[in-house]
Design brief:
By secondary structure, this protein is α+β, with helices and mostly antiparallel strands. It has helices spanning about 1-10, 30-45, 65-70, 80-85, 90-105, 155-190, 195-225, 240-260, 275-295, 325-330, 340-345, 355-365; strands at about 15, 15-20, 50-55, 60-65, 110-120, 125-135, 140-150, 235-240, 260-265, 270-275, 300-310, 310-320, 365-370, 380-385. The chain has 12 helices and 14 strands. It binds adenosine-5'-diphosphate. Adenosine-5'-diphosphate binds near residues 328, 339, 350, 352 and 378.
Length: about 400
Amino acid sequence: MTDASDATEVKSEIHGVPLPPDSLHSHNLEEQLKETVERYELLAKATNDVVYDLDIANATVTWNDALFTQYGYRQSEEVSSLEWWVSRIHPDDAFRVQEEVSALLNTKQETWFSEYRFQKADRDYVYVRDRAFVQRDAQGQIKRIIGSFLDITQQKQLDRTKDEFLSLVSHQLRTPLTVIRMFSDMLSTGRAGKLSALQKHYAHQISDASVRMIALVGDILNISRLELDRITIAPVATDVNKLIATHIEEVVPLAAAKGAIISFSPTLDVSYVSIDPTVFGQVIHNLLTNAVRYSPVSTGRIVVRFVRDGHSFLLSVHDNGIGIPAKARAHIFERFYRADNAVDFDGAGTGLGLYLVKLIVDACEGKIWVKSNAPQGTVFYVRLPGKGMQARKAGSATTPL
Ligand code: ADP
């Protein structure tokens, strides 16, 4: 009886792939096993990815044909040692990759992802994206790393072109916009001579529009940087209460023009938190300008809080504005999304602010969410880890953004 149930156990799957129930009674098990193995072999042949199986104890590697067909190595070459593989990784990347793999030894991590330069047989390097599954024994020790890598050199080149385009946009578009703003301000304030009321009004309009354009270009640049994983987070001990107060001061003229009042009472149990003030400042600024934008004329009340909440920090921005209808709430963090009530209330938005904020908060390992009692009032919450923000270098995402 024991034997029979053991046999059923063995037959119920091959390489972790469950067999259909009727196959349990099949006499062709060997045939099926052969077919499954053949299928895997064909799959390994069909893909352009290099598929590898690294045996940790013996430091040996088994490769599929793609290593030979895609990277030019000869079948006769001795490629089965770990040493051979490591010697093919670009010297500037080898140390980092080796550190990443060593770090796996001390964790229970089951997957690994990295990008590095790999040398082809003609000695040229290509960028590869490597994803692997880490197989461990019952004690958690790594037995095998099974993975695949793909040549992403073209994608990297495209990213570089996008980078160049970004810096071009940044300089070529922002500089003239700033000049337009400066001169229109000179006109509207009378510093360049007396203007009629109508002329002043037009100069004001030009200045306002250029301010919106500068902000829009800034948002697009920031989003592109985040999407291209070009964001650097450099946390420093920051007086958060002061940072928030500074950002409120910046928004006060906008709020005053609308008759809205912003209040903020610094909490005493929070002083210095390890954050990147520029990055977090963008979050605060966007939430504040939205709260002002969507608050009612003359009676807007905005309350900002930053408190310690258990093992984390919680920023909240509460307004008594138009609220967010229930069906729109799931979409407000999407790029270009604007709820209908927002479009009717203020035509000037772009639908980019919250998308940017969400990208930033995600990159900081934080959380953002919203509560709203439409048709009145909205609260945005941002939770930051208790240890503050994690330092991060551009291009260090562990998964593609
Ligand atoms: P926008 O430029 O339209 O404000 P955002 O990305 O900042 O773009 O916000 C996306 C949408 O979320 C807005 O169009 C609006 O529908 C909604 N929203 C954001 N903040 C608020 C708020 N404080 N009150 C009401 N609706 C809001």
